Structures are given as C-alpha cells and as structure tokens.
Amino acid sequence: MNKRDATETKARILSTAEKIFSEVGFDKARVDDVANEAGVNKALIYYYFKSKDEILETLFSGLVEDARRMLVKSMEKTPDVINGDNYKALFDAYIHFVMEKRKILKVAIAESVKTSSGLSVVMELGNLIINAEIDSIRKAYELKGLHFPENKKEMLVMEFFTGLMPFLCFALFKDQWESYYHMSEKELCENFYQAFKKTHLAAHLPR
Amino acid sequence: MNKRDATETKARILSTAEKIFSEVGFDKARVDDVANEAGVNKALIYYYFKSKDEILETLFSGLVEDARRMLVKSMEKTPDVINGDNYKALFDAYIHFVMEKRKILKVAIAESVKTSSGLSVVMELGNLIINAEIDSIRKAYELKGLHFPENKKEMLVMEFFTGLMPFLCFALFKDQWESYYHMSEKELCENFYQAFKKTHLAAHLPR
Amino acid sequence: MNKRDATETKARILSTAEKIFSEVGFDKARVDDVANEAGVNKALIYYYFKSKDEILETLFSGLVEDARRMLVKSMEKTPDVINGDNYKALFDAYIHFVMEKRKILKVAIAESVKTSSGLSVVMELGNLIINAEIDSIRKAYELKGLHFPENKKEMLVMEFFTGLMPFLCFALFKDQWESYYHMSEKELCENFYQAFKKTHLAAHLPR
Amino acid sequence: MNKRDATETKARILSTAEKIFSEVGFDKARVDDVANEAGVNKALIYYYFKSKDEILETLFSGLVEDARRMLVKSMEKTPDVINGDNYKALFDAYIHFVMEKRKILKVAIAESVKTSSGLSVVMELGNLIINAEIDSIRKAYELKGLHFPENKKEMLVMEFFTGLMPFLCFALFKDQWESYYHMSEKELCENFYQAFKKTHLAAHLPR
DNA sequence: CATGAATGAGTCTTCATTCAT
DNA sequence: GATGAATGAAGACTCATTCAT
After folding, report:
1. How do residues C88-112 score in pLDDT, each as one tens digit?
2. CB within 8 Å of chain B, chain A residues 33-62
3. Does B180 sit within 8 Å of A123, measured CB to CB?
4. Alpha helix locations (H) across chain B?
C-alpha cells in the first residue's frame, strides 16, 4: 500500500474502533478485534497510536471538534434562536449531530461514569454546548431589545439536564427504543420533537 | 465477622461491588478488589455468586425491585399527580431515589450501551416507570372528569426522554457537576427542580 | 442419622466417588460433586477421609483385597487349571470380576499412567494375579506328574500381557465397544471368550 | 530461538506437552509447566492453540495420522502376513511404533476412560488398526487360494483384545515392568515376542 | 508501512481443605 | 456425626503491548 493510503488506514482503524467500542464498551473491546475488523495488522495500530487509550482520546477529540464545528455552523444559520420558526432548524441540527455521532457518544457516556479520570468528555462537551446555547439566547434577547432574565446557574442546569441530556439519551437509546416499542426512526424523531417542543423549548419562549 | 451472618456477608459483597463497579466500570472492576474491600476471601464471592456477571445481575434485579417499591409508595401518597402541590412530592421521591441509587444507576447506564445483551436494564426500568407515570396521570385526569389527551406513543417518548432521562443524568453527573460548577448539592437540586418544573412538569398541567 | 448409618454413609461416599472418578477421571473429579451425588455434606467426607487421595487409596485397597479373595475362591474351585473344562470356569470368574469392578479398574488404569507414584496399582494387582496363576498352573502340571516347562520370566510376561491385559482392557472398553460395534454384552462376552480360548488359553494346554 | 521458526516452536510446545501429559496426566498437567519446559512464554501457547484441550486434540490427531502411515508402510512391505517369517517383521513394526509413541499412547489410554467425550481415541485407533489387519489377513488367505474363515465380529474382538491391547499395554507398562521385574528392554521385548507368538499369532496360522 | 511472533502482567474462576457451631 | 461458611493456593486463559524482520 502506498503512502496515500496511510490516512485512509488510520481513519479505518478509528472508525472500526469507534464501532467496536460502542458495541461492547471500551474496556471489553479488544485491540485484536479492532485489527481484524479493520483488516490491518495489530502491530500497525501501535504504529499509528501509542496505546488503546490514545485511540479513545483521538476519537473523543474528534467528537469535541465536530461539536464545535456544528455549533458554529448552526449559530450562523439561526441568529435568532427564540424565534419559534428557528427552533426546528436548531433541533434538526442537534438531532442530526447526535444521531450521526451516536456510536462515539455512547462510549463517551459510558466512560463518563468513571470518576477517576477527572472531567469527563460529556461534561466538557456539555459545557461547550450549553454556554454556546446561553450565549446565543442572550444575543437573541438583546437583538430584540428584550431584557434577558439572567440566572446563569439555573440556566446552565436547565440547558444541561433538560436541554442537552434528552438528546444525549436519544443517541444512547434510539436503537433499543425503536426495536422495543416498534417505532420507526421517523416516528420516534417526530414524537421526540413534539415532546421536546412542549417541554424544554416551550420554556424558552419569552412570555 | 460472625460466621453465622451469611446474609450480612452477602450484602457487604454486593454493596462493595456496587461501589467499585460505579467507580471504575464493571469491566475494569476486579473481583480481587471487591473481595479485599469487602473484607472477605475472594473464593467466598464465588460461593455466593456464580460469576462476576451474576453479581451485576443481582444488583440490577435489586434496582428494579427498589424502583417498583418506590413507585408503589409514591403513587399511594400522591393520587392526584397533576395537582401543582403534589408535583413537588413526586419530584422529591424521584430525586431521592435517584440520588440514593446513583451508584448502581451509573453502572446501569454505562452497561446499557452494550448492544449484545438484548434489553438493557435502563430500558426495563424506564418502561416500568413511564408506564406507571402515564397510568397515574390518566387516573388524575379521570378523577377530575377531564379528558385525557391520549397519544400513547408521544406520551411514552416524552416521559422517557424529557421526564425520566434528566433524572437519570442527574444521577450520572451530579458529583461531576457540583465540583465543576462549584454548586452545593442543595443548590443543584433546587436549580434542577426549577428547570424541571418549567419544562417537563409545565407540559403536564392541564390547560 | 444414628450411628448405624455411619458405615452406610462411608460406603455411599466410596461408591459415589468410584462412580465419579471413573466417569471423569480422578483429577477432574470434584469432591463437591461426590458430596452432592452422595447426598452428604462436603465436610463430612473429610470427617471420614483425610483427603481426596485417601478416598482413592481406600478404593484401590478394596480392589486389591477383592482380587485376592476372588483368586482364593476360584483357585479352590478349580485346582486343575489345565484341564480344558475348567478353563471356562476360571474365565468366567475373571470376566465376572472384571465387569463388576470395571469402574475402579478404569480409574486404576488411568492412574497407572502417572510415573511419579512409584508402583501403580495395576502392577500390584497384576503381580498378584499372574503369580497366583503361574503357581496354580505349576501345581496342575505337578498333579499330573508332568514336567512344568519353567521359563519364569517369559511366563510372567505372557500371563501379564496376553493373559491379564485383555481382561483389563475388556473392563476399560466394554461399554464403548458395545455401543460402537453394536454388540450386546452377551455377544461381546462370547466372542471375547472364543478369542481368548484360541489365543492365550490355547498356549496353556500341554502338547 | 529464531523468530522465524514458528513451526519449530509449535513442535517444541507439542512434544513438551506430550511429555508432561504422559508423566502426570492431562488434567494434572499445568500449562505453565509446559511453557517453562518448552522455553516459551505461556501466552505463546495460546497463540498457537486455542486451549489446553486443543493441544491434546492436536497430539491425538498426530497419533492417528502416524498410525495410518505406519499401517500403510508395513502393509506394503509384508503383503503375505500369514507367512511365519513375515510375522516378525510386522511384530517389529508394531512394537517399534508402540514404543516410540508410548508417551502419547499412555495419555490416550488414560483419557479413554472418560465416558463423556463420545468415542475415545483408542477406539478410533483400534478400529483403524484392526480393520487394516483383518483386510490384510483376508488378502493373504486369498492370495494363497485358501478359504478365509470369516466371522467378522469374532475377528474384530480377537484383533482388538488379544492382538492390539497387549501392544498398547506394553506401551503403558513397559517402563514400570522393566524396573519392577528387573528386565532389560531387550529381554522384555524378546519375552513379549515369544508370548505373543504363542498366543495371538499362533491363532492366525492356517491349520 | 506492515507483519508474524513473542511476552508480562494480569484476571476470572476453581477446588481441596478447614473452621466454628 | 453433620453442616454452612470460609480460605489459600493455584490454574486456565486473556490482552495490551513490543520486537525482529
């Protein structure tokens, strides 16, 4: 294989690792299996990555990067987030992100349980997202010359637990939910949107 | 250590396992460590449990049992759940349960990622709780002679993703949250209650 | 249980051990299984026997004792072993012994492989039997005033390898043989007698 | 130890395992000991073999293969087996095989005791050999225009129990016998040949 | 870049044996 | 005699990681 393939090989290792980590959990996942399923020699994995942990870190960094990019892009598109019509666009951006990244998100959630490792990725990600969210809400209020009823801490808690977490859990349980309650992806998404609109989104509209 | 106290010994093994599983994750947890920290011989663990997996299953069964008990008790106390005042009582019951069981809940969430094992405990638990919840809401409506706007599937989705999940994530991130955002438990709980009231609970009040 | 049962209990332990040892081999056999199948508490086994090894030794001693008794009895009955008619009686005595003791004989053979333990039971048993056999043959010759063509070593070798071993192997493979070649016990015994008569026994008749 | 020499390494593991299995029995044998004595890392054993059992199976397959080869070769050399002179050649082929393979044969016999595993290797081996034997005897009779007194079942029994088993037991007890009865290998072999000739072989000569 | 072979340090599980009652 | 509980010492198997080519 020529040099051009190097990037492709590394990417294949990463996506295979992501898949396997999400299926059996990081600790249960075997480097051997990643190698086999990616079709590369195990030792080659160690040529590209210092350790199994580094693979995970790489995946996590990618996730955070992608989240950042997603945020920037969707903020650009919808400067006025408290306009009812824009809600749907924002919701779609989030749901799309969460569904696409669901494999690595599952791993992130599972790993966030472990207390030892300081700040979990989910907290990092959460902090990133909820601050962006609050910022953009504030801007929207200011844009309209409205007074932004700031209670920062309550806002943070709300954005995190009733805003972000349902999405994360959507990533986590989407597949199980569909098969257990016999819902199609479309049906589930629609119901989820309705539920989210009536709860979290409703709380954001200025009275 | 009294030889007679088999039940106490078994319970000590279980609670130690619960602690360690929640700290490092089930797969990373070592039976050796459980034995040492519980102050029993490792082989004794295998006298009481067929395998490490069986310990986990026992803990999960206990969790589901406790949830069932909690539901029965709190439903008895608050027959009219859509009465604003009762909300707080119900919320408290849930938040108390979730905080007390947070160790095993963390493990349950982390394990629910693994696709292989069919239905995850969180789904089992979720199904149990959201159905009880919907039932009790319906009863409350009927009690008042109000029409219950049934859309079962949307209701399920709402109860699960915007009702239950925030609580579960509260269990998961409570400690990290407190330390990262420098909030006291009391402050976090209060903010969480406000947020939950404005979102999920608000959606339940009959208009 | 009263004291009368003690002997019975010990016997039950022994016969259960014999059964299990013969089914899975001594090393693979678990004291737990012996206890369960014998319907006694595991610790009770250690009340009667110092160790798992002692159970085996007890069984082996019993085997040697029984062999001795069988020899004495059959020698009494058939003083003239080189008389063709007596052959059958002797053969029957052996075949009966071997079939009845086949469980412990299997264990004895399997254990005789291990070099470490000095003289194996099979060698002990073999020595006992072939010497008795040679003695009785010699007596039969002398009784008839015939010259006994003594070549002790060849005689020993013959009695052991072509006389005794087929019987031992009969014990070992009887069950497998019957099921693999679809022979009834009766058919197999009869064929074995014919084969043994034409080979080993034929060599004993004075020409 | 050349890294390239995978075949040699695997062979060394196998022969070391064969040795240790035959000395202490399969169940008592420790993979650790095999690794140490073979001078390889224990994990390497599991790189080449799925389990301890697979090592044994590999050894057994090899034994059966070797037996097959030995049969073909010796049948080629001695087409007329009922010619007195050829007997010795055949006997030598067998005794040589049995002495050379005695380690794994011991294990095979010890393992054949265990009922669980269906057909034992010894039965498999026995079936192979006695059928080859009977075939070649029949051919020898036909070659001479003699009538072959076929009683297949009796023949099978005879070949197995009075033909093959003495050889197998020779493998099993050769060493113990030599040391207990103070016989040299040569002496024992010679006596065994005489005994075998007078018994089993004698029965084969056409009358 | 790529690979087959090799290794050290686990990690679960087993089991003969003993203890306290 | 009898038993449930407890233990020490292994033993099979695993797996992340490295080496030599």
Report:
1. 888 999 999 999 999 999 999 999 9
2. none
3. yes
4. 6-24, 31-38, 42-48, 52-77, 84-100, 102-112, 121-143, 152-157, 165-180, 185-196, 202-204
